[in-house]
Amino acid sequence: MAILKTHPKAKSAKPRSQILILTASIACIAVLYLVSSLLSTNGFSFSTPRSIRDPKNRHTLHEKYLYWGSKIDCPGKHCDSCEGLGHQESSLRCALEEALFLGRTFVMPSRMCINPIHNKKGILHQSGNMVSEERWTASSCAMDSLYDLDFISNTVPMILDNSKMWHHVLTTSMKLGSRGIAHVQGVSRADLKEKVPYSNLLLINRTASPLSWFMECKDRNNRSSIMLPYSFLPSMAAKKLRDAAEKIKALLGDYDAIHVRRGDKLKTRKDRFGVDRSLHPHLDRDTRAKFILCRISKWVPPGRTLFIASNERTPGFFSPLAVRYKLAYSSNYSSFLDPLVENNYHLFMVERLIMMGAKTFIRTFKEDDTDLSLTDDPKKNTKIWHIPVYTKDGQEC
Ligand SMILES: *[C@@H]1O[C@H](CO)[C@@H](O)[C@H](O)[C@H]1NC(C)=O
Ligand SMILES: *[C@@H]1O[C@H](CO)[C@@H](O)[C@H](O)[C@H]1NC(C)=O
Ligand SMILES: *[C@@H]1O[C@H](CO)[C@@H](O)[C@H](O)[C@H]1NC(C)=O
To answer: Which pTM does this prediction carry?
Structure first.
């Protein structure tokens, strides 16, 4: 008031006081905001941090969380016996579907384990006639080196299990007591979604089968419940892997592709008479160059560029196919793949994107009715061990 009185012009007092009030209110709001954000980081209230409020990550219900564990399909402490990429992806997809179904943010393992038998250096490092048994030494890799996590988050909101946010969720869940966290095993999805207390909990800690998370999705007889397609995770590859695949696809131009699974799939064991038996009795035959040439001739015309992705490590194994096709492997592009690819999962993710871009793509096993495949053996483990077959009757080509 004193200021106003001493001021010579009374008229200017009015606008000035309005400015003062405005400034004071702004300051007040700012202080309130500061206090509330301080309180929330101290765990008195639960708010979502800025990074998750990013407009492209605007989701519903991102304030309840679903945790399945820190390692996918990893029964041992040291991950020695974890499964290959495809197997782990099925499991991760099962967990992501549950998060979608429950409307919860998924707590993503920050690393994926790599089984040493799935980590032989590929045809990427073949030189001359030497069969290289060299391996990549990694036993795990960062999830964000495999996938574009922002991309995944657009469909299934997620946070990493090494993030500050996860730490915040955990400490908050403990403070909330019985409303905070439940450790569940074998509880149905529908119950987790609808039944109290689960539906209201901040955090659900699902103990899934340590052997295979996807067991949780196995007995789901209702296929119409929310499903992510098989192609979901493959297409979510990390940007540098997607860029590499795009570059190779551009160099290949118009091409077809085959995925030839040999390696571990050819495993045989002896029966009690000492006779070799295999779960896929025609696979070894059907994935040899001579038989491939015959089988694919009705789908791939001569002269086409054929991209071959395979875990077969014998040099020149597929060379006979060159009589009819222009062959290409990831090894043709090692000059720019080498610096980028740190393990076999990275390599396979690039190869898979290339295969997805082929005009005609032929899998090893038929997975869908519309699939073209190299063999008629079922992919599924029938648990029946047959005597492998190497001959073929009739000449179809
Ligand atoms: C989740 O539950 C399992 C089994 O009860 C337990 O061993 C694990 O420590 C729990 N994890 C968290 C983060 O609470
Ligand atoms: C299957 O799932 C759909 C969608 O979630 C639901 O509407 C339907 O009632 C379910 N059917 C059965 C038999 O549970
Ligand atoms: C890829 O490399 C092989 C030799 O390893 C060669 O025969 C073939 O022509 C190359 N393909 C392309 C598309 O460059």
So the answer is: 0.78
Same domain, 281 and 213: no
What is the spatial distance between Cα 36 and Cα 28, in angstroms, rounded to a whole number? 12
Query: Does 247 share its domain with 229?
Result: no
- C-beta neighbour count of 156 within 10 angstroms: 22
pLDDT tens, 166-206? 999 999 998 888 889 999 998 888 899 998 889 889 999 99
Nearest CA residue ID for atom 7, ligand 1: 207
Kindly list the distances between the CA atom of residue 204 and the CA atoms of 24, 140, 193, 323, in Å, as whole numbers in the listed order: 44, 26, 11, 58
Q: Is 267 exposed, middle or buried (0-12, 13-18, 19+ CB in 10 A)?
A: exposed
Which residue has a Cα nearest atom 10 of ligand 3?
Answer: 328
State the residue range of the domain holding 261.
238-373
Closest ligand by atom to 167 CA: 1
Looking at the DSSP bridge assignments, the partners of residue 130 are 127
* Greatest alpha-carbon span in the chain: 115
In a domain, 379, yes or no: no
Pocket of ligand 1 (CB under 6 A): 67, 183, 205, 207
**182 shares its domain with 273:** no
Residues 303-341 have pLDDT tens digits of 999 999 998 988 899 999 999 999 999 999 999 899 999
* H or E element at residue 153: helix 149-155
Rounded to the nearest angstrom, the gap between the alpha carbon of residue 156 and the centroid of all alpha carbons in its chain is 12
Kindly state the DSSP code that residue 29 receives in the 8-state scheme: H
Q: Where are the beta strands (DSSP E) in the chain?
A: 65-67, 105-108, 111-113, 140-142, 158-160, 181-184, 203-206, 255-260, 268-270, 276-278, 305-310, 326-328, 361-363, 372-373
Domains of the chain: total: 2
Q: 109 Cβ partners below 8 Å, 6+ apart?
A: 69, 70, 71, 72, 143, 161
Pocket of ligand 2 (CB under 6 A): 222, 224-225
Specify the amino acid at residue 92. L
Instruction: Find residue 387's DSSP bridge partners.
Output: none
168 and 112 share one domain = yes
- Helix, strand, coil percent values for the chain (each to nearest 5): 40, 15, 45
